[in-house]
User: Which sequence fits this backbone?
C-alpha cells in the first residue's frame, strides 16, 4: 500500500502536471526527475508514519524487550560443565551465562528469550529496543528532505536579522548612495533597511500589499519598486514608512524582472511580453511582443548620443534599446521608441537565464540552461563564440573589462577571456549550486546553495575565506561602499559580514607598486594622494550595479552612471600573455 500510494503521488505531483504546462514555459527533465524522486521518498516516509502509529511501535518495543539480547563471550577459557545449555522453553534472567552450539553467551536484558547468535533476533532487538528510534528516524527523513542545515557561525559575522522575512528572501538591492538595502521575500512583503546605522533599529520601511511573493526589487531616489507573482508592480515611499504610492497594471502573469531607466520603468513577465512604463504616472507606454515563451532577464542600452555627444551616429542603433532573454532560447534587441525587434540572437538549445554586455556595449553575452555561454555582435546579430565548460545551467554572468565571470548549478564559478572564449580559472569547493556572486577589489564572493559565502582571489583562484551562518541556500550577495557583505537566504535572514583583512599585506603592496608603475608608464607623475587614499579609490572604482544577481539568473541594468568592478589591468595582461 505504501509503495503504491508513493508512486501514485509522484505521478500526480511530477508527471501529470506536464500535460497542463503552457507552451511558453520551459522545464528541465533532470530536475523534474529529482522532484519525482523527492516526492516518492517523502511520501513513503509520511505513509509509513501514518500506517505505523506510535501505539504499534510501542508493541514492537515491548516485544523486543521480552525477546532480549545475548552477547557472545570471547574467552579462551574452557566451558564449565555446570553452565546450562540454552533452551527455548526457559526465559533467562539478566546476567545468565549459557552454552549454545559450542559458544558461550551472556544475557544483557532483564529477560532473554532470543536464540543466542541469531542475526534476525539481534536486529529486531537493536531496532525496536529504543521506543523512539524508528519514529525519530522517519521524522528526520521527512523533515530533512528539504535540505541540510548549516549551523556553524563565522567569526566575520557583523550583524544578523534572523527573521527578516517569514520565508525565503528572494531578492535584494542597494541604493546608489549605499544608504539603503531593499529585500523582498516569499511572505509577499518588501522591506527597506538603513544599513548606515550601527544599532539594531535599522529597519526603515515595511511594504505590505502584494498578494504574491516578491520576485524583484529596485531602489531609485526615495522610492522602492517591487514586482510580484501577483502580476503587478508597486511603488513605495521609503521616507514615509513604506507607504504605498502606485500600482502598475497590465501584465497577465508573474512579473519577473525590473529595470529602472531615468523617468521610465521596464518589466518582463511570464506572459511573453516586455512593458515600458512611465515611472511617475504608471501609464504603460509600450508593449513588446515576439517571444514565444516567458521573458526573463533584461538589459537596458542607452542611446549612443547619451554616451558620445561628439560622435553621434545616425543609424538604427542610435536610439535607446533593450535586450530581453527568454525561455524560448532566444534573446531579442528592441527599439524602445518603435517597439521594433531589431535583432534575434538564436542559437541556445534552452532558456536564457542571464545576460551582460562588454564595456563598449558592442558584444552581448548570454548564459543559458543548456550549460553554455554565447557571445554576439549587437549591431549585426552575428554569433561570435561559444563558452563551453560548465556542466549545468548558467545562473549569472558578469563582464569586467576583458574577462567574463560566471556561476552555475554545477557547483563552480569560472572566469573566461571574452575575446577567445577560453576558461582561465575555475573556483571550486562549493557543495551545491552557485546561484550568485559579486566581485570587489579583485576578490570574487560566491553565494552557494550550501549556505556558505566563499571568497576567492579572482586572479589565482585560491580560496581566501569562508562566511558561514546561513542555514539554507543563499539567494543574493552584495557589497556596499564600506566593504561590508550583505547576503539573503532561503532561511529568511539577512546577514552582514566583514571583509577586513581578506587581502594580505603583500597583495596590497604589489597593487600599489603596479598602480604607480602604470601611472609612470602613462607619463603622469605619481600622486601621493593615489597611494595614501588607495583604499577609497579602489572602493570608488569598484562599484558594481545596484541590482543583485540571484539564483533565478535575473539580468542587471546597464545604466550609464554605473561603474563596472575592475580586476587589475595587470591581471588581464598576465592572462593575455599566458594565452599567447
Assistant:
Amino acid at each position: 500500500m505504501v509503495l503504491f500510494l508513493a508512486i501514485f503521488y509522484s505521478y500526480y505531483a511530477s508527471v501529470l502536471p506536464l500535460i497542463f504546462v503552457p507552451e511558453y514555459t520551459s522545464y528541465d527533465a533532470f530536475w523534474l526527475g529529482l522532484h519525482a524522486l523527492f516526492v516518492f521518498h517523502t511520501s513513503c516516509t509520511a505513509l509509513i508514519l501514518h500506517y505505523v502509529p506510535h501505539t504499534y511501535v510501542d508493541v514492537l518495543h515491548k516485544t523486543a524487550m521480552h525477546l532480549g539480547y545475548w552477547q557472545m563471550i570471547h574467552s579462551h577459557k574452557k566451558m564449565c560443565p555446570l553452565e546450562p545449555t540454552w533452551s527455548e522453553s526457559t526465559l533467562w534472567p539478566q546476567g545468565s551465562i549459557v552454552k549454545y552450539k559450542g559458544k558461550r553467551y551472556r544475557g544483557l536484558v532483564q529477560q532473554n528469550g532470543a536464540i543466542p547468535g541469531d542475526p534476525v533476533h539481534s536486529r529486531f532487538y537493536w531496532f525496536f529496543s529504543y521506543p523512539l528510534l524508528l519514529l525519530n528516524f522517519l521524522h528526520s527523513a521527512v523533515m530533512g528532505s528539504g535540505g541540510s542545515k548549516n549551523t556553524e557561525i563565522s567569526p566575520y559575522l557583523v550583524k544578523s536579522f534572523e527573521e527578516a522575512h517569514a520565508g525565503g528572501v528572494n531578492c535584494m538591492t542597494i541604493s546608489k548612495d549605499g544608504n539603503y538595502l531593499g529585500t523582498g521575500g516569499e511572505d509577499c512583503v518588501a522591506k527597506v533597511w538603513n544599513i548606515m546605522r550601527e544599532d539594531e533599529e535599522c529597519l526603515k520601511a515595511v511594504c505590505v500589499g502584494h498578494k504574491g511573493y516578491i520576485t524583484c526589487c529596485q531602489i531609485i531616489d526615495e522610492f522602492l519598486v517591487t514586482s510580484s507573482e501577483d502580476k503587478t508592480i508597486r511603488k513605495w515611499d521609503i521616507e514615509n514608512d513604506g507607504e504605498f504610492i502606485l500600482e502598475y497594471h497590465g501584465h497577465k502573469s508573474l512579473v519577473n524582472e525590473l529595470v529602472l531607466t531615468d523617468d521610465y520603468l521596464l518589466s518582463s513577465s511570464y506572459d511573453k511580453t516586455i512593458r515600458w512604463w512611465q515611472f511617475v504616472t504608471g501609464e504603460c507606454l509600450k508593449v513588446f511582443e515576439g517571444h514565444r515563451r516567458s521573458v526573463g532577464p533584461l538589459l537596458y542600452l542607452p542611446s549612443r548620443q547619451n554616451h558620445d555627444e561628439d560622435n553621434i551616429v545616425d543609424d538604427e542603433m542610435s536610439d535607446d534599446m533593450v535586450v530581453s532573454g527568454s525561455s524560448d532560447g532566444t534573446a531579442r534587441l528592441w527599439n524602445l521608441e518603435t517597439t521594433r525587434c531589431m535583432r534575434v540572437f538564436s542559437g541556445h538549445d534552452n532558456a536564457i537565464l542571464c545576460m551582460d554586455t562588454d564595456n563598449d556595449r558592442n558584444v552581448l553575452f548570454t548564459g543559458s540552461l543548456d550549460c553554455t555561454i554565447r557571445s554576439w555582435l549587437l549591431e549585426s546579430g552575428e554569433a561570435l563564440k561559444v563558452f563551453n565548460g560548465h556542466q549545468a545551467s548558467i545562473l549569472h554572468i558578469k563582464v569586467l573589462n576583458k574577462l567574463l565571470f560566471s556561476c552555475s548549478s554545477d557547483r563552480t564559478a569560472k572566469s573566461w577571456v571574452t575575446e577567445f572564449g577560453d576558461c582561465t580559472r575555475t573556483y571550486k569547493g562549493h557543495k551545491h549550486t552557485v546561484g550568485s556572486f559579486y566581485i570587489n577589489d579583485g576578490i570574487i564572493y560566491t553565494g552557494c546553495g550550501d549556505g556558505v559565502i566563499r571568497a576567492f582571489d579572482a586572479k589565482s583562484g585560491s580560496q581566501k575565506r569562508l562566511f558561514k551562518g546561513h542555514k539554507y541556500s543563499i539567494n543574493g550577495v552584495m557589497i556596499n561602499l564600506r566593504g561590508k557583505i550583505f547576503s539573503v537566504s532561503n532561511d529568511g535572514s539577512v546577514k552582514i559580514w566583514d571583509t577586513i583583512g581578506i587581502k594580505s599585506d603583500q597583495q596590497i603592496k604589489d597593487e600599489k607598486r603596479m598602480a604607480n608603475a602604470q601611472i609612470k608608464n602613462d607619463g603622469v607623475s605619481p600622486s601621493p594622494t593615489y597611494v595614501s587614499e588607495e583604499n577609497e579609490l579602489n572602493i570608488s572604482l569598484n562599484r558594481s550595479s545596484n541590482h543583485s544577481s540571484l539564483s533565478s539568473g535575473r539580468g542587471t541594468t546597464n545604466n550609464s552612471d554605473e561603474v563596472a568592478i575592475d580586476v587589475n589591468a595587470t591581471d588581464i595582461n598576465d592572462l593575455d600573455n599566458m594565452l599567447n
